[in-house]
Give the backbone structure.
Amino acid sequence: MLPPRAMLDPRSVAVLINTMTAHARTAAHALAGAEDVAKARALEAGAAALRDHAAAILRANAEDVARATDRALSPALIDRLRLDPARLAATADGVAAVAALADPVGQVIDRTTRPNGLALSRVRVPIGVIGIVYESRPNVTADAAALCVRSGNAVILRGGSEAVASNRALHAALVEGLVAGGLPADAVQLVPTTDRAAVGAMLAAEGAIDLIIPRGGKSLVARVQAEARVPVLAHLDGVNHVFVHASADPDMARAVVIDAKLRRTGVCGAMETLLVDRAWPHAAGLLTALSDAGCTLRGDAAARALLPTMAPADESDWNAEYLDAIAAVALVDGLDGALAHIARHGSHHTDAIVAADERAAERFLAAVDSAIVLWNASTQFADGAEFGLGAEIGIATGRLHARGPVALEGLTTYKWLGRGTGQVRG
């Protein structure tokens, strides 16, 4: 095993990644032909191994958290990094939940019979070899492994230096379970160095890696999108809005807004900007409640007039993903004002409206161009498990292939099958 900060000759890194992708391709062929019950059994064994090795995993995570604290990393990043018994148990439960999901491989998407009698169908198949580059969150190691294996894909994981001990402990437990369940160990590989050259080698592995998925901050995603010669499935910032419409119930608005911002501030589904209809008479009380709950507010002039202790917002605040107990606040001119603000500043991730007016809510749902749009619900529901998808690989904000929580179906493609009776075109 290479030391976590090993700086290797770029040629050595290229050889390392080439070797890993070759092993992954072999494993992918085995997974593509694996029966549903075999994949489920292996993931159940992986979940059991996570529980059996909980003490060792938590010790490794404590080392990572201590290093992150010494490096004065942000509270939001440390929160993403930290595992405790409950979070680790939830991670293991997530792997088991994926094992219990229906196998997407072989599902018939649609079928038709042509006038000449040729029967055509589209059938889900694995993508092949997937590379995942991520930062901070060690639970991604387990979530990504489970989803890729369940959908018949081999995966190469490259985690960040801040979570190196946690990732290694999680990976070791998962591989133990996979092997016990009869699947190849190379189905889930962890890049053994955090040298940035390894990311570059993965991004250049055209033909060897079929899809790259980055999970991390803006700089990581930007680098992947700029350098990749491999298809990329990515999401950018979660600049998420909650719009409180003039018809909103005040108690519901308070509950939704406080949860959306403060349940967990470091997740990508957290509300970052609160938009309030100027015609809503309860705005001052909502802003006071949010401030009293521990959120620092930065607002426009109209918002500050309702809560004078609020700091002024500048243009950068409307585009900010704080990932902290901070929110930007603007009063807007009804639904049209909210839609215009979101169109200008949103990141196409998750946006919500609180409203009793069904027509206004339905217009919001139709008009907002985001991967997830909610009515009378917290943006913190932007989560694959909450959507009944088990774990998730991330929230995709693009428009191609997959959008929103990416789970099993998002990790498959399809092929056409034709069944004939001797048809020729002549």
Notes: Residues 1-6 have pLDDT under 50 and may be disordered.
